[in-house]
Specification:
Elements: H1 12-22, E1 25-29, H2 36-41, E2 46-49, H3 56-66, H4 68-71, E3 77-80, H5 87-99, E4 105-109, E5 116-118, E6 124-126, E7 134-138, E8 154-155, H6 156-160, H7 174-183, H8 194-215, H9 223-235, H10 243-251, H11 260-272, H12 303-309, H13 314-319, H14 321-340, E9 346-351, E10 357-363, E11 369-375, H15 379-395, E12 406-411, E13 418-419, E14 426-429, E15 433-434
Parallel strand pairs: 1-4, 1-7, 2-3, 3-4, 8-15, 11-12, 12-14
Antiparallel strand pairs: 5-6, 9-10, 10-11, 13-14
């Protein structure tokens, strides 16, 4: 079942094997084109491709009469784009219950499970949660380490263990980072050059606004309005803008702006197809009594989508360094999420009433955390990031939670990673980082 194209190893490979060893089935979900199917094909012993037009009608008919026949095949069996037939979810769950054991199925999909999708007959298709039978694995576009654009001399897991190595990164210029930001982490682009690689993000964006945003829940949505919303979200990435602020920004593009409920519907659709992935707020135990903001921070799953939504290329980012900083933040958050996943970690954001803000907090299941400020680079920005990290670190109530394992300024440029002797803040170019 291996792909005919050269396969580049992914961090999710080992995660998938681990999940299959412990669960009857694994749901691999994430944005379209991020490599879910290819990853599963490396270990699948049989496969059913539901979106294949040559067999779609036959498979749909078979699913209506006897869906068990579609589950037959050597295990682990890949069922690609399973959500085309939501009945697969309960069919797989029941099969796992009856057969027992682990590693039977891999389900891939570019949309969240339709737990409460309205059927054509007007009824509701309620799906069982799958708890204990179906494990979920989130895949994202490729990190810089996976695409070969990071040297991997600094390990995120090592930072949690107290390792602070010095090492050379792969990129030292803003021009290179601007190109990587606009190219994105799409597997098909990592070996392509120039405008050919940059075109893929625009192709993805066009597919989202013209079809995917409507197909996800069979609700017709206006492509023009979808464009306006995505452009606003791109301008507001890295912020905690609420619906009224998003609507106000959209009015600059469209005098007949959508109401807030419609905006919410469009945003929910983008979340369901993994185009946007907001970051939750972090609520630590602090010595300070300052109220912690709880609003999510807005991000795209890949910075290239935001660039395409605004029609930006690398030159546009270089001409607007302030905006470039927000795009790079989205790229850095993408990579931190990818690197944290195999550690059982999550990434969140801190902001309090006094305006103290930390771009990313990586926290593991054992209660340890790392504080990260994301900056393009340069002495002044590194100093600014270090001040923020030291201020937040000093507020943590270490009698009620563990002190931060590390404080890191993650930069776009810089040849080497190093640790500041005066405060222990670790300065790391993103071109050095790995899981």
């Amino acid at each position: 079942m291996k792909s005919q194209m050269a396969y580049r190893k992914r961090i999710a490979d080992q995660q998938l094997l681990r999940r299959l060893a412990g669960a009857g089935a694994v749901l691999v979900e994430g944005p379209k084109w991020c490599g879910k199917t290819t990853t599963c094909e490396q270990i699948a012993r049989s496969a059913l491709y539901m979106a294949d037009p040559d067999s779609l009608e036959r498979n749909l008919a078979q699913a209506e009469t006897n869906i068990k026949e579609l589950l037959a095949g050597d295990k682990p069996r890949l069922i690609d784009e399973w959500q085309i037939v939501p009945k697969f979810w309960d069919a797989v769950r029941v099969h796992v219950d009856h057969v027992g054991g682990a590693g039977h199925f891999m389900l891939t999909g570019s949309a969240v499970p339709p737990d409460d999708r309205k059927r054509k007959d007007g009824a509701r298709a309620m799906l069982h949660s799958g708890t204990g039978r179906i494990s979920r694995l989130r895949m994202r576009p490729m990190s810089l380490w996976e695409s070969g654009d990071s040297s991997g001399t600094v390990s995120l897991s090592g930072l949690f263990s107290g390792e602070f190595p010095t090492g050379r990164g792969r990129h030292s210029s803003l021009e290179e980072m601007a190109w990587l930001t606009c190219r994105g982490g799409w597997p098909q682009t990592v070996d392509q050059k120039g405008d050919i690689a940059l075109d893929r993000a625009f192709d993805y964006y066009e597919a989202v606004v013209n079809s995917d945003i409507s197909r996800v829940d069979d609700t017709a949505r206006n492509p023009s309005r979808a464009r306006h919303l995505m452009r606003s979200l791109a301008r507001l990435q890295g912020t905690q803008a609420l619906l009224p602020a998003i609507r106000k920004d959209m009015r600059n593009l469209d005098s007949h702006s959508m109401d807030e409920e419609t905006i919410r519907s469009y945003r929910n659709a983008l979340e369901k197809i993994f185009v946007i992935e907001d970051m939750p707020a972090w609520s630590p135990c602090l010595r300070s009594k300052a109220a912690v903001r709880t609003s999510d921070t807005h991000y795209f799953s890949d910075p290239s989508i935001a660039a395409a939504a605004l029609g930006f290329g690398p030159g546009d980012l270089m001409n607007d360094i302030r905006s470039f900083g927000f795009f790079f933040e989205t790229l850095a958050v993408r990579d931190l999420r990818v690197y944290a996943d195999p550690l059982g970690g999550t990434v969140s954001h801190y902001l309090d009433r006094n305006g103290l803000e930390c771009d990313a907090v990586v926290h593991l299941r054992n209660g340890t955390c790392g504080l990260v400020e994301i900056k393009l680079g340069g002495k002044a920005l590194i100093e600014e990031g270090a001040r923020t990290l030291n201020s937040l670190s000093a507020l943590i109530d270490t009698e009620r939670m563990k002190a931060a394992s590390f404080k890191m300024v993650l930069t776009a440029v810089g040849e080497y990673a190093y640790r500041r002797p005066e405060d222990g803040v670790f300065v790391c170019p993103i071109g050095c980082l790995m899981p």
